What does this fold into?
Amino acid sequence: MKKGLFITFEGLDKVGKSTQVENLVKHLESKNLKVTLVREPGSTEISEKIRNILLDKENAGKISPLTELLLYNAARAQLVDDIIRPALERGEIVISDRFYDSTTAYQGYGRGLDIKLIHSVNMEATGNLVPDLTILMSVGPLNETINNHERFQSSSSDDRLERESLEFRERVRAGFLEIARQEADRFLVVDAEDTIENVAAKIAERVDQLLQTK
Ligand code: TYD
It folds into this structure.
């Protein structure tokens, strides 16, 4: 039986997610609450090994979307079993820097794998563990000007990769918003372009509300 509180952070790379994760941990610890912090992929011995395969630059472009889906979820299954579920059962607050919504956004909306398939693998890997709150650090549409600029550059493979990467990130960005729209009650969508202080205050306010209603 789950007694603790499970909070996840999501968003594109480099939107200031880690800073806000740290801020929330400090906020909760200042209230003498016990927090377990994890990140995905990783955080257990096995999951960190899987992380190395996934993020190794030498493997870039070689791992198929389906392999990615299964590897991210393999790392996740181990993390849920070893750390997240036991901590929740002890009544702790668990914060995860990314969780299964990243798979839906990156491998689903980004790489084009079937969303229903992703949902069932995500649920299998986590034993149906749904976060109590997911904070999405959201940014506006990625710069169309850059996109067009790149589109009309010479067609060397580097340019093509860059352009694909921008279009990929835009699909992931929009995908996250779509996931949040479909599960509006679970999500707090914050504007990542707002000041660090404002974003931190909005997150703390929502988490405090959640703690009161528990
Ligand atoms: P990381 O260096 O941890 O970046 P960040 O600070 O942005 O979290 O790299 C994690 C990368 O893995 C990031 O690009 C998102 C990607 N990812 C997926 O594609 N699917 C997933 O399920 C997860 C958890 C991460």
Q: What stands out?
A: The longest helix spans residues 157-182. The chain has one domain: 5-213.
